[in-house]
Write a structure and sequence with these properties.
Blueprint (H helix, E strand, L loop, with lengths): L1 E3 L5 H11 L1 H7 L2 E4 L1 H11 L4 E5 H4 L2 H9 L5 E4 L1 H7 L8 E5 L14 E5 L4 H14 L3 E4 L9 H7 L7 E3 L4 H6 L4 E5 L5 E2 L9 E6 L7 H4 L4 E4 L11 H16 L1
Parallel strand pairs: 1-4, 3-4, 6-7, 6-11, 7-8, 9-11, 9-12, 10-12
Antiparallel strand pairs: 2-5, 3-5
Helix pairs in contact: 1-2, 7-8, 7-11
Length: 258
């Protein structure tokens, strides 16, 4: 294993750019994975990441040490704790990160398959939560409009807990163009809709459309939906977090289909 103890180290400077600059990650075509769960999930699906980075303290933790012993073929770099802290991409770093190539979906969008369309979801935590729910509910095709949080940012990856690796994610998608050619039923949720989720017919294939945390779905996207539905809320809450709303709709779809 390589050890880095100086901020002047060239590789440390490169890692710092990757960790904190989304443009640098996109330019290098690399993602940063924080935590054993993400690293193991990536490795199980796509093979070894490019590089493992651990803190000096993290290298002494049994789970991390066992992983490194099990996989001596992985290129590992140990950073002094203070340097690792400078690379931290999440609020509670785990002591181990990896640099890896993003999965290559290579798939065109499919207008005859189930889909989840996200219109300017700006919070990485909400985006990750929706991706996690979509993967669990069996919705593989995900389209993100320009203005969404970056799907492959470290915070979104951490929130989705490995869901990315079971999805076909299309960033910067033209949602109106996709909906204009969609051969299934597109549904948008709206608190003032006349029909409610639990009694309305849900088609197959189905495209769920979820909008930004503040403004909802843009009118130019919403008007292309075949149906508007509300989630019944008999309590006193005025609205739901978009991640919660998406989970309710996706798993209502699962319940109907079973």
């Amino acid at each position: 294993m390589k050890h880095i103890v100086s901020r002047d180290n060239a590789r440390f400077r490169e890692l710092k750019k990757l960790c904190h600059d989304g443009r640098e990650r996109r330019k290098a075509e690399r993602i940063v994975l924080d935590g054993m769960h993400l690293i193991e999930s990536y490795r199980a699906r796509f093979g070894a990441p490019d590089e493992i980075i651990v803190s000096a303290t993290g290298a002494g933790r049994e789970e991390i040490a066992r992983f490194l012993r099990r996989h001596p073929e992985l290129a590992a770099t140990v950073l002094a704790d203070a340097l690792f802290a400078e690379l931290a991409v999440v609020d509670t770093p785990s002591g181990i990160m990896a640099v890896a190539a993003p999965p290559r979906g290579g798939q065109e969008t499919d207008p005859s398959a189930d889909a989840v369309l996200l219109d300017i979801i700006q919070d990485p935590g909400n985006l990750g939560s929706i991706l996690r729910s979509a993967a669990a509910a069996g919705f593989r095709q995900i389209l993100l409009a320009p203005g969404c949080a970056r799907a492959w940012s470290p915070k979104t990856l951490r929130a989705a807990m490995g869901a990315h690796f079971a999805l076909d994610i299309h960033e910067d998608s033209d949602l109106p163009a996709f909906l204009s050619n969609y051969r299934g039923q597109a549904i948008v949720t709206a608190p003032d809709a006349a029909a409610d989720l639990f009694t309305a017919e849900l088609g197959r294939p189905l495209a769920w459309i979820f909008g930004s945390e503040g403004q909802g779905v843009r009118p130019q996207v919403a008007r292309l939906a075949a149906k508007r539905l509300r989630i019944p809320m008999p309590g006193q809450g005025e609205s739901l977090n978009v991640g919660a709303a998406a989970a309710i709709c996706l798993f209502e779809t699962v319940r109907r289909r079973q």
